[in-house]
Every structure is written in C-alpha cells, then in structure tokens.
Amino acid sequence: MHQPAPPILSLRHYGTSRGSHAHDHFQVLVGLEGVLEIEVEGRGSGIGAGQAQVVAPGDRHDFEARGSSGSSCLVFDTAHGPWARCAERAPADPIQLHALARYLAHCTTQPRQFALALQHGPALLLEAWSPAPSSMPHTRRRRIDWPALAAWARARWHEPLTVADLATVACLSPSQLAQRCREEQGVSAMHWLRGLRLAHARELRLEGMGVAETARRTGYRSPSALTAALRRRDRC
C-alpha cells in the first residue's frame, strides 16, 4: 500500500550541544521557544520566539541553544527558489509569522488530522514572510547569461575571482549581481562560484586526472584543500 509522504514541516528541539553542517537546499527556521544561537558563514545571530532565519544552500552554519531549557523551532527544508529573497530579509510581519508557525508546529503533532495545513504551510509561511513578487513594482532588468558567465569563470580559476569580477562581466553592480544570483540561482554569488569550481574539479578527477594537477588547474591552494572540499560536499 502506498504510504503518504511525511510532512516537510517539523518541530525541532535544540540543546546545548553544538552542531555544524551545510545543506544543498534552503532551511527555514522560525523560533517558538528559547533562543537558538546560529552562525551562518561567519555571521552570528540568535533565533528567539517570533524570530526567523533562512539558511541558503551551501551556507555552513553552526548552532547551539542558549540556556539549560534549550530551544524549539519550526523547521523545514525546501528547494523552492522564492525563499532566496527571504535569506537576507527580516519577515514583513513577525507577529503574524510567529502565530502561523505556532499553529503549524501544533499540526506536526497530528499529521493525519492536519494534512492539508501541513501541505500548504510552507506557502503560507512564505506569504507571511515577504510580499508576493506580483505585488512588487515591475522593473526591467538586464538579463544574465549564466552559462556564459560560468564559462568565463572556468577559464580563470588561476585568478582570485570575486563577486565584483562577476558583476563587471555581467555589466551589473556587485550588489545587483549578488541579489540576482540569490533570486535566480538560489545561492550566494560566492557559493555559486565555489560550486562551479568544485564541479569542474570533480569532472577532471572522473576523467582520471591526478589530484595535484586537478588542484592546480582549478585554483585550489593544495591537493589536500581540494580533497577536503570534495569530502565536505559529499557529506552535505
């Protein structure tokens, strides 16, 4: 008999034990009780009751609960692109978001009874977090040729490429390029660049090239740095 897919929303409890990892998808956390200390790519913050954060794909984050009682959050993982616009933006209505999160957290305790609420919960959270794109003013934007930009970067792994370099090629400002990358690729510009470089290195290794030569061609500072990067990606 076909079993229904488990709800993607979950109520999670965090203790004082420190955790650290990265995902290949967005992770959305809405605080319910206590305070969860979280550091994302070196930027620290706390998620208390009524506060929320989106961790973008590939961003390594360290976390631990403050206080002996720990912390609880409504959490879900998603590859839905529109969450990119929430990664660096506070919720538009924190009170509404918190009330919705508390209700959905209750629903996770009885998933069969509240199956419809859990199914539509992520869309409701996104709506509560940020206005829908259709309600924002429409502006004409320069198209980014991502494949061409990727090919340009692949030919320059020997250089210390930056977001400003990518922006110059795309004829945008660094802040515009960073925002567009979040919106259209779902990750930060530097993570997109790191992902391209690691993918190229993996291709060369699969073709039989040695670790040292692969590291040299793809701009890693040493063979061990390349090996460590490949292992980290395989664990995520």
List the helices and strands and how they pair.
Blueprint: E1 9-14, E2 19-21, E3 26-33, E4 35-40, E5 43-47, E6 52-55, E7 61-66, E8 71-78, H1 94-107, H2 115-129, H3 146-154, H4 163-170, H5 174-185, H6 189-206, H7 211-218, H8 223-235
Antiparallel strand pairs: 1-8, 2-7, 3-6, 3-8, 4-5, 4-7
Instruction: Report the helical percentage.
Output: 40-55%
Q: How many strands, which pairing sense, and closed or not: the largest β-sheet?
A: 4 strands, antiparallel
Q: Mind telling me the CATH class of the largest domain?
A: Mainly Beta
In which order are the strands of the major sheet placed? 1-8-3-6
Structural class, from secondary structure content? alpha+beta
The helix/strand series, from N terminus to C terminus, equals EEEEEEEEHHHHHHHH
Quote the average pLDDT.
Answer: 83
The CATH superfamily title of the largest domain: Jelly Rolls
Overall shape: it is globular
Task: List how many beta strands DSSP finds.
Answer: 8
Q: Poorly predicted ranges (pLDDT <50, ≥5 residues)?
A: 1-7, 133-138
CATH topology of the largest domain: Jelly Rolls
Radius of gyration: 20 Å
CATH architecture of the largest domain: Sandwich
Number of helices: 8
Distance between the termini: 32 Å
Indicate the proportion of strand residues.
15-25%
Question: How many discrete structural domains?
Answer: 2
